[in-house]
Write a structure and sequence with these properties.
Length: about 170
């Protein structure tokens, strides 16, 4: 089960929350009856949806049946959010944030480039920062079209980088 967002704020006096998400495309809420929230590490609890509406391209305003006050909603702040199994739609695509790859080893196909140490401009045009040594750093576009595969267990990112980008 892959996280698709995080609760980033409360809204109003009835316990609504703002859910920042990484979903792409048009989202159909018809099959969404609940959202799984990771209250404790490795403990995902279903919260049943009373109402959900799009707030922006990257956020929803959600009212949960179980939450009826701003105080109760605050308990959910900064918690990771997952789709419930019956809402899992193969047409939904989750956009991975570039900063989630910090610490991963980057490969250009089979050639090891280095460890991703940081991200430059994570929201606009992200670049992976890889320090070759104390005096030299590589800036690699963190473009999802260049990424061939990701091995989360090994913390490896395999990319197909344009010729001439790496010396």
């Amino acid at each position: 089960m892959e996280t698709f967002g995080r609760i980033i704020g409360t809204h109003g006096v009835k316990g609504d929350v703002v859910l920042e998400h990484q979903l792409k495309g048009e989202i159909q809420f018809d099959s969404w009856d609940a959202i799984m929230i990771e209250l404790l590490p490795e403990s995902k609890i279903p919260f049943f949806i009373s109402n959900i509406k799009v707030q922006s391209d990257t956020s929803f305003l959600v009212k949960f049946e179980e939450i009826d006050s701003p105080e109760a909603a605050k308990e959910l702040l900064q918690k990771n959010v997952y789709l419930s199994p019956n809402a899992a739609d193969e047409s939904l695509q989750i956009t991975t944030q570039a900063d989630s790859y910090i610490g991963y080893t980057l490969f250009n196909k089979k050639e090891k480039i280095g460890t991703i140490d940081n991200i430059l401009n994570p929201k606009t045009n992200p670049l992976f920062i890889i320090f070759e040594n104390q005096e030299n750093e590589l800036l690699i576009p963190a473009n999802e079209e260049l990424i061939l595969s990701v091995d989360e267990d090994k913390k490896e990112l395999i990319a197909d980088l344009p010729d001439g980008l790496i010396k």
